[in-house]
Design brief:
Rossmann fold; about 45% helix; alpha/beta; single chain; 7-stranded mixed sheet
């Protein structure tokens, strides 16, 4: 019987950019891989100035639908199945008065708003109610970039681990150079996986599906490929001892 792996991705592209090579390896072995984007819900209007600016950069009026379609194609290239939960991205979330919670990029990386405190518990309930997670290995981000959505997804991993689920953390791509306090705070075993040429190629080809994000993240397609051919050729995971 093949094993089941559930990768929790804060946003569309996070898991593929962070673990795409390893996912390709799992798929080649015949194991079932599911990639679930936590903050894949619809935009909440009216959009903030920041959300409008990002939509212009991403180049699509119906950006959430575009990103869902990109993710479906990327996951398919890796032999994985994609899906998403209805929780909105931080750039769309609002308080009870309809005011946007996060107004700048810096807001995402400073302090989690009080209104988000219950989100990890709500996400865990949604996972339990809609997915058979008891037999899966569950992968969550280390949140080394300190993005609030990554931190909230990391907290989901801690809650699931506390309940006895098999949880592994993965290092978030794009933020590898930033301090990763999770290794200092917890007694975790670090595993670095060196990708084969075939696995790396599969990862890059899958990431190319995220056309709306590449110029925003890397400024050019060549820079994206250079990044994955160097930094992205090793994927890092952390296991509870």
């Amino acid at each position: 019987m093949s094993k089941t792996h559930l990768f929790l991705s804060p946003h569309f592209d996070d898991v593929v950019g962070s673990c795409g090579g390893f996912i390709s390896r799992l798929s080649e072995k015949g194991e079932k891989v599911y990639i679930l984007t936590i903050f894949g819900g619809d935009s909440l209007f009216p959009l903030s100035e920041l959300a409008n600016e990002l939509h212009l950069i991403w180049g699509a009026e119906t950006i959430v639908t575009t990103r869902r379609n990109e993710d479906t194609l990327a996951c398919k290239k890796l032999g994985a199945i994609s899906n998403f939960l209805p929780f909105p991205d931080a750039i769309y979330r609002k308080n009870s008065l309809g005011q946007n919670l996060y107004l700048t990029i810096q807001d995402f990386r400073t302090l989690q708003k009080q209104e988000d405190n219950m989100l990890p518990y709500e996400i865990v309930c949604s996972l339990k109610n809609n997915y058979n997670i008891s037999c899966s290995t569950i992968y969550c981000p280390m949140a080394n970039g300190s993005h609030v959505d990554h931190i909230l997804t990391q907290k989901v991993g801690f809650l699931l681990k506390k309940e006895g689920y098999n949880v592994i953390f993965y290092q978030d791509f794009y933020y590898e150079q930033e301090e990763n306090e999770i290794f200092n705070r917890l007694s975790l075993k670090r595993i670095d996986i060196n990708l084969s040429d075939q696995e790396l190629t599969s990862k890059i080809n899958a990431f190319k599906c995220y056309k709306s994000q590449i110029l925003c993240l890397f400024e050019s397609w060549d820079s994206m490929e250079d990044y994955f051919n160097t930094v992205g050729s090793v994927e890092t995971f952390a296991f509870f001892r």
